[in-house]
Write a structure and sequence with these properties.
6-stranded antiparallel beta sheet; Jelly Rolls; mainly beta; globular; 0% helix; single chain
């Protein structure tokens, strides 16, 4: 079965200042910084090492698509999830470094695959489709237009539909 989420792309348009001091578009492309895993495809748009940042800094995406932002920084990404029925969930979620950091064994989560925790505050907005955010004590369905603020809690994602779901996320380094 072809995994449609592997085809997911995110267009990144970056503005800047031209030689005459006028605002302009300096790049317009599908982000080259993608990671297609078994259950989702992550398209990193921009990573910032620290705040405040410089207007002239580049995208900061050296080292491939990694889940955690730099300490004191943030990452903005677009993620497309496959339906649960289309992939082996025992594989869990991964990035360019392998299994997600903070992954919790499904045996410790009542059999829920993909449970993990990151040292971040995540602001997640669903762009299309619907996904279930699973926490230790409850879960909720998120649909297009809904936003979840995930504050360093153990969580997992489940796409119980028959179509892909796409979301955008700002992951902010936190303590």
């Amino acid at each position: 079965m072809a995994l449609k989420h592997h085809e997911a792309q995110a267009r990144r348009v970056v503005t800047g200042i031209d030689a005459d001091g006028n605002s302009c578009i300096v790049s317009d492309e599908n982000t080259p910084d993608r990671f297609a895993g078994p259950g989702n495809t992550k398209c990193d748009i921009w990573r910032i090492d620290n705040v405040p940042t410089s207007y002239t800094d580049g995208p900061g995406l050296e080292g491939g698509v990694v889940t955690q932002p730099p300490k004191g920084g943030l990452v903005f990404r677009v993620v497309t999830f496959a339906p649960d029925s289309e992939w082996d969930q025992t594989l869990g979620y991964s990035d360019a470094n392998g299994q997600l950091p903070g992954t919790i064994d499904a045996a410790e989560t009542g059999g829920v695959p993909g449970f993990h925790v990151t040292e971040t505050v995540d602001i997640v907005t669903i762009l299309s489709g619907e996904i279930v955010a699973i926490l230790e004590t409850e879960e909720t369905v998120l649909r297009a237009g809904d936003t979840l603020v995930q504050r360093g809690t153990k969580h997992a994602w489940s796409n119980r539909t028959d179509t892909t779901v796409t979301l955008q996320s700002v992951m902010i380094s936190a303590e």
